[in-house]
Amino acid sequence: MHLDDRAHTLLTTLVSQYITQGQPVGSGTLAQQAGLKLSPATVRHVLADLEHMGLISSPHTSAGRVPTPQGYRFFVDAMMTASAFETIDDSTFRSSLQPDSAQRLVSSAVQLLSHISKFAGVISTPKRSQVFRHIEFLLLSPQRVLAILITPEGDVQNRLLELEYPYQTNDLVAAANYLNTHCAGRSLEQIHYQLSQELHSLQERVTFLMQAAVSQNNDTPSAQDDAVIVRGERHLLDVSEFANDMNRLRQTFDLFDEKNRLLQLLERTNHAGGVQVFIGGESDVLPYDGVSLISAPYTASSGVIGVLGVIGPSRMAYERVIPLVDVTAKFLSRAMGHKDAQEP
Fold first, then answer.
1. Structural domains in the chain?
2. 3-state secondary structure at position 153
3. How many Cβ atoms from other residues are within 10 Å of residue 137's Cβ?
4. Which of 120, 250, 323, 331 has the most Cβ atoms closer than 10 angstroms to its Cβ?
5. What does this protein do (predicted)?
6. Is the pTM of this model over 0.85?
């Protein structure tokens, strides 16, 4: 959407003033803040055009104007084109996000992002590795076995196996020895195929145990819940747009509970790349009016492994929050990359 310089200046000034003050912006205040030598009639004429274009609206008669989702979008796009962002002090991120386990790193990153932004922080965790470096079996009862997989990244995955037949310790040792000797470093899909084709020489019960271990998937509800972490939801209670609108607050908290839906929203950033801004009410991506998500992917040596972001009101200081999300993603990526480089 193209605006002439006069309309561009008035719109961006209006959005900036509304974000700062939280009140509808009148034409007199707008002309003064924009620094344009325009008559009140001219300002009102431009505002009428912007309202006709769907970029601003009048909540009450003669109460001034507020930006619509489309107005916020124009404001954010103009800001990103001009790179008109605040400079972020990265010392806290540098000291807090040091190489560590993936679980602790993502938890620290989302907690830090929420704390500094004063909004809710969200992050999709790295997908569970489908390759193992080492496996052990622990006999819990004759028909219940705990499979312990250690990934190449050093993370530990526990899988509870409910088995049809009773097993003894020597069966578990035989299965673990075979998998560690012949299958370490391969994907679970490759191992499953190998087991179905080549293990005629082993006892059937041992083969069944190994197939059960590598056939477990990550599509269970608990795995989906673990795939997204939300921190700092309570910060939204201090935001007037949520505190004064219980329906909006309830819709946003419902989104936090629907982890699969939230994960799908974050994955849109994964495909797009770079910092993305989703403005509520602009499209069906984030249908809740007055709510925005700013997100960015983070990487490891293998490429993009997750997405982090901030959920807050559409009336937020984008010039501060956008670079804040970007810096967090970059330092988390750096820590993840160093962690991978240190793995044996």
1. 5-82 (1.10.10.10), 91-126+222-342 (3.30.450.40), 134-217 (3.30.390)
2. coil
3. 23
4. 120
5. Negative regulator of class I heat shock genes (grpE-dnaK-dnaJ and groELS operons). Prevents heat-shock induction of these operons.
6. no
| Burial letters 23-35, b for 16+ CB under 10 A, else e | ebbbbebbbebbe
Tokens 């989906």 locate to 224
What DSSP assignment string belongs to 264-331?
Answer: HHHHHHHHH-S-EEEETTSSTTS-STTEEEEEEEEEETTEEEEEEEEEEESSS-HHHHHHHHHHHHHH
**Phi and psi for 34 in degrees, rounded to 5?**
-75, -20
Are 277 and 76 a contacting pair, CB within 8 Å?
yes
Distance CA 87, CA 324 (A): 9
What whole-number distance in Å separates Cα of residue 279 and Cα of residue 315? 10
- Each residue of 105-141: pLDDT tens digit? 999 999 999 999 999 999 998 865 567 788 899 999 9
Report the C-alpha gap between 40 and 27 in whole angstroms. 7
* d(C-alpha 58, C-alpha 67), whole Å: 9
Give the sheet arrangement for strand 120-124, strand by strand.
228-231, 120-124, 303-313, 291-300, 276-279
pLDDT at position 341 is 43
CA distance 176 to 137: 7
**CA-closest candidate to residue 331, choices 92, 120, 114, 116:** 92
CB 242 within 8 A of CB 278: no
How many Å apart are CA 204 and CA 195, to the nearest integer? 11
